[in-house]
Amino acid sequence: MKLTLRIWRQHDPDAPGGMAAYDVEGISPDMSFLEMLDTLNERLTVEGQDPVAFDHDCREGICGACSLVINGEAHGPERTTSCQLHMRSFRDGDTIDVEPWRAAAFPVVRDLVVDRGAFDRIIQSGGYVSVPTGAAPEAHATPVPKAAADSAFEHAECIGCGACVAACPNGSAMLFTSAKVNHLGALPQGAPERETRVLDMVAQMDAEGFGGCTLTGECATACPKGIPLTSITAMNREWLRASRKVPRG
Amino acid sequence: MSNPTAYADYTTGEPLADTKAPEGPVEDRWDTRRFTAKLVNPANRRRHTVIVVGTGLAGGSAGATLAEQGYHVVQFCYQDSPRRAHSIAAQGGINAAKNYRNDGDSIHRLFYDTVKGGDFRSRESNVHRLAQISVEIIDQCVAQGVPFAREYGGLLDTRSFGGVQVSRTFYARGQTGQQLLLGAYQALSRQIAAGNVEMHARTEMLDLIVVDGRARGIVARDLVSGEITTHFADAVVLASGGYGNVFYLSTNAMNSNATAIWRAHRRGAHFANPCFTQIHPTCIPRTGDHQSKLTLMSESLRNDGRIWVPRAAGDTRPAAEIPEDERDYYLERIYPSFGNLVPRDIASRAAKNVCDEGRGVGPGGQGVYLDFADAIARLGRKAVEERYGNLFEMYERITAENPYEVPMRIYPAVHYTMGGLWVDYDLQTTIPGLFAIGEANFSDHGANRLGASALMQGLADGYFVLPATVNDYLARNPGHDTPGPEHPAVAAAVAETRERLHRLVGVDGDRSADSFHREIGELMWEYCGMSRNAEGLRKALDRIPQIREEFWRRIKVPGTEGEFNQSLERANRIVDYLELAELMCLDALHRAESCGGHFREESQTPDGEAARRDEEFGYAAAWEFTGTGRAPVLHREDLVFAYVHPTQRSYA
Amino acid sequence: MAVSGLVMLLYLVVHMYGNLKIFFGPGTFDGYAHWLRTLGEPFFHYEWALWIIRTGLVAAVVAHGVCAYQLSRRDIRSRPVGYVHRRARSSYATRTMRWGGVILALFIVWHILDLTTGTVQRGFVPGHPYHNVVAAFHDWWNNVIYIAAMLALGLHIRHGFWSAAQTLGAGSATRDRVLKGTANVLALLLTAGFIAVPVGVMTGLVS
What we know:
Chain A: Residues 1-102 form the 2Fe-2S ferredoxin-type domain. The complex is a heterotrimer. In chain B, 37% of the residues lie in helices and 15% in strands. Chain B is of the alpha+beta class. Chain B folds into two domains: 1-275 and 418-642, FAD/NAD(P)-binding domain (3-Layer(bba) Sandwich); 280-415, Alpha-Beta Complex (Flavocytochrome C3, Chain A, domain 1). The radius of gyration of chain B is 24 Å and the shape is globular. By secondary structure, chain C is mostly helical. Classes of the chains: A alpha+beta, B alpha+beta, C mainly alpha. Chains in contact: A-B, A-C.
């Protein structure tokens, strides 16, 4: 396959950026999208040009590092991560636009690499169960109904890639936040901190400068792990419930 | 340049012994050790700083637990977030001797299975402790909200896994590693928010600072700004994972690397059993030269899938057209009692053998079938989908083949490294104050790791073992002054790091870092992969210094040191692979026996099975660094088996 | 947004119901309009109830508008650099909420000037709503304005109702189809119900 890539190049957070065009040849349909970028980078390196910086690590679709907006869609046309997108999804001769996640809360570090520290801070604000090592009761002390365990798992699958934010026309992080709120909220282990968790995490999310949710559903459409849009509804319910129970101030 | 044959002329130094495991019955040793350990007054803990490198299962759990105990933790990861460490990719599950199934499991059986599975090259004290702690890990993780699979009664589900006959593996669909890691990450996040952990993401350790014989800090590079920084502590913990990426193609993450442990090795930490590499039997075969990594398919697939190849060599018919009597279900044929569930090393080697006979399937004949037709007929497609749905999807996404209709093709790939920094029972390396946990150390898996044991070991080390033993070390070594940047050892480490990076950028050659990585990887796969022989290993030992020399002549690193530079990150890691590869080959050459994942063609039984030679090689080989390309010194730690008596493994 | 939106939605349902009385002739329609003004008597004085409702409505409209403005500002701020290549994957109704809302706000102003105060209508006779409606829809361009606005309203409600349910936490995986269905029915019913009046005038059914 022969392709034309137009890639966002930006040297550092303060530098101006722009799209640059590159032709790549000899692309196999079996290559992953990132392997296609490897091919380009190999050539740029040998030619003495700066290779394209992009985040990636496991290349199995689970670490959540890869983060490319491909032809205007977070992670590209398939419902998967950029690393699991294969070139067979494109046609010979295609022009492909590659851009970084765009959000004020995810500033560009370089080229296609962004800083997603805001996600870590949202988790730090309450996305955990406070159980110091050694303090745990016997695992079978609290049976968990299978439905609750399955629901928790469904939300716990979030890989924190940020595609939801990238896809959202408002740059909102509701789906990410709600996935963690609902994962822990579904389990008896998460119940004691249920109210403070949702209030603190939503407050932190707002403080990070993410946009507001207007339920466009683009987040859930882009989510490579299929976190459902109803996750946001469930968090709204939790938040309203918690606001009533916990006096704010 | 050094003379390659000189490297193989290693010398033998003083034997090494673990002085920390107490005497007495194996089941009492951990209790005894914890009792004899000195404690640091809780009020004084805040004054002690512990550096933790890595945020995987071992590092994440250790950082969180040390912080909970009151220590000031300074933690590093090269990823943009601690949640992305490669533990996240572990699929299958985590073992624990809970015996919830009442199927005859016990701590002793897990201990026995692990020692036997490791082909009698691990230390009994450590393995027994691991089995004991396994039980607490499950409790801890459940309390954190890890959504393990459950049965309708609300109790935890388990399955049997990889070469054992009890059902002791806890799992969260095919994403157990992810869920356990997120548990540790969340515990760590809580401590970051509380100000007890100072987290440095996108920061890579490039050297260890040793002052007066003790580990006192690290030299790191901020991967965003390129700035070289120094960090000081009273103890340093390496939880940086394994070194499987030396093979270029492996199931490791692209950026997993050996730099932290190799730099520690260069500073005096002995490296044990570097040749013990695990080749995982169920990976998706490679499709071409563009391949950047290999993807593992959980071993749990072997519970229901049947492995076969055509009976005749060169049979290129599609699988569906090969009649039943022309198929060879070779694992079931050779190992009737374990069948498709034989340990990983055996399954991998058997796959290699049939492919070497020309009976492999798929492009290049480098693959065997893993067939679910029988399972679908027996259990129904729905049940199979429930068990393996996500794995089947992943397979189809990568290969564009539907495994419900066409058998999967699998081939072995490098997956895990049992070797690592030598540690004693306290997980302390030969440098006082330097600890190694998780895959970074060599301790618990001997020559072969059983399925679902890596997660167990990482968390056992991080949550339970290390926090107890670091406590003891800090109690016995209180009140050191922080060495300043002007201290000669610190200045030297910083200067060496700067010089190395500067040199990499300065070569301005014509080959990319990846091209060298691929070259060394192919060499290692060829000569130090699934089966090894003296001639091949010598060839590799001849070739590695040449590649190293060429590397320093022809490497091309665009950009500068003082900026975000992924090419520089890669090139710098390859510098270390080019030395580590040499030690792996030497270790494989010196160990003229077959054991576990290390198969020496010269040492096999008449029917082609691995033949261990306990009298000569019943030891862990710990290597001492003497200089790049210079023969290292071998220190033997004799392994004593008082509880599990070495037998030739038999899975027939 | 959700609460004020639902208040307006409730009002619209009643409003549409009242509008349809026009098909029963001037007597019924004007009588209904008169009743609205005497609602709650003798406890309330003439038109008090109506003004209470109007005040509530204005509050809802203002709250909805202010929230929309704040939300939009926040959303625009959250993505200072946009995509060069953008492909939306949400529905048309969803994507047009912001500008659809602006269109509806302008329409409300027009609607009041047209049929409540009569400022923009020639031949407006206070106290004779039937006459005024018929007169208003004699102009073809006014029909276009009303019909276009009602289509915008339908789209706005289609996403708005479902979205409000999610905001208030009323949605769930099992209830989603019901909520989406209700939103569609409401949108369709209100659009059709409101459009029926100008169409009725145009076709001579109401004259």
